[in-house]
Amino acid sequence: MARSLFTQMKEAGFTPDIVTYNSLIDGHGKLGLLDECIWMLQEAIKFFVDMRRVALTPNEFTYTSLIDANCKAGNLAEALKLVEEILQAGIKLNVVTYTALLDGLCEEGRMKEAEEVFRAMLKAGVAPNQETYTALVHGLLKLKKWSQATEALTLLEGMLDLGLIPTEDVRNGLQPNVAVYTALVDGLCKNNCFEVAKKLFEEMLDKGMMPDKIAYTALIDGNMKHGNLQEALNLRDRMIEIGMELDLHAYTALIWDCLTVVKCKSKEFA
């Protein structure tokens, strides 16, 4: 549908610019429409080549949009080539470019390179944003590097406490969000780091954040596995009180773990 409308737009004499291409690539990427995303990216590259052919100089925004789009489409090699080109052109990388690269490297499990990019970013004096830290934390969680993931969160909070983030607006934007905490709580529970997960869950509540269904379900499951039946049921009740519906996964966790507890109790009295 989007491809058809895009073609109609061009046939009607309207010339799409890099903003149009980037918006369409980003939208298709978020919807998981990889084929459409790649097709749109190819169209954007043609546009980029045509720009240079008529002696129009691509600017920081053009390069950043293409690097970001390539990373979202999984074309990390092409994104890295564009990074070399942008540096040769004397254009500095900005927070969007660095974050796109970090996200792309993390998605491919190339954490060593991601950490190098992160260090280069700090050295260049570019302040990380919320998306930067989210990409790093998710990348570390993907590789099951729990200690480093929690360290990334601690690093962020430490920077805020020490006033190393320059403006109040940026400081507020950098506060670890629900997505970061949820990923940590879920991952830690699944990997038998329950006490740390519980501490982070309480930290969310103390900061006035609203844990989502994934965080609650992970903690319910963790409590049940550690024999804390009453605490798991309390969490279930809290979900109901705030109007959060239990999904199949939450009910399955409760039922399965209740059966496990009953089975263990039966063995004690056997």
UniProtKB/TrEMBL annotation:
InterPro entries attached to this UniProt entry: PPR_rpt (IPR002885), TPR-like_helical_dom_sf (IPR011990)
SUPFAM superfamilies linked: TPR-like
Keyword tags: Repeat
UniProt repeat feature PPR, residue ranges: 17-51, 59-93, 94-128, 129-166, 177-211, 212-246
UniProt family annotation: Belongs to the PPR family. P subfamily.
Full protein name: Putative pentatricopeptide repeat-containing protein
Organism of derivation: Vitis vinifera (Grape)
